[in-house]
Amino acid sequence: AEFVASGAAECPMDVLRFQHQASEVDASFWERFRGYKLDELRLEDAALRVWGFSRAGEAKLFLTSVSFESSIVEDANPNTTLCVGQLRNYNTVEEFKAADKTELLQQQGAELLRAMAPDAPLPDVAQLMRFLIIAFSDLKAYKYIYWCAFPAVLPGEPHQAAAVEPVADECISQLAVATQALQRQLQQVGSCLPWTWLVQEGAAYSFSAAEAAGIL
């Protein structure tokens, strides 16, 4: 398998494409890291496990001050999906610029593949939504330079996009019913379902979680 950063390559128009993943890092994330670096890490540059979250309908990773707390797993907002990542901070800007981004991304991709292996236990959803951040922090100047990437598994052959057809008027009400059923399901499980299939049977529509469909 090959791992690429989001948006790394252009695709022909008939190839199925997905919205590029983006990151939104709150200032509180870096303020929390600054305290952690001064009080605990100091000159150590070991990689840190950090947590982010995404919201349904947004191809965006959010990072805040709680991204360093393991309790985020239990306290996650039910309308968000957790993502697990690695933060690697370098002590000098030269080390940051010289970092082998491809190798670091390959390492995260290998973790993703292990979680997806057929003989692996049913993974935590966060293990399937991984990310990588490398950074240089000028703590005195409160200046942070960072690069964020998201490993993705590419199929051997690109999936072709089917022809786009408008939904018939009589199907709109069925879609509304299916959406309401999905909302009730989300309330029951207490979290967002990151992979959901829209299933059509005749004129009826329903949403099916990827786990229930045997995908995960």
TrEMBL record:
InterPro entries xrefs: Atg7_N, Atg7_N_1
Domain (Ubiquitin-like modifier-activating enzyme Atg7 N-terminal) spans: 16-199
A Pfam family (short name) is: ATG7_N
Q: Which residues form the signal peptide?
A: none
Source species, domain of life: Eukaryota
Q: What is the protein named?
A: Ubiquitin-like modifier-activating enzyme Atg7 N-terminal domain-containing protein
Natural source organism: Pinguiococcus pyrenoidosus
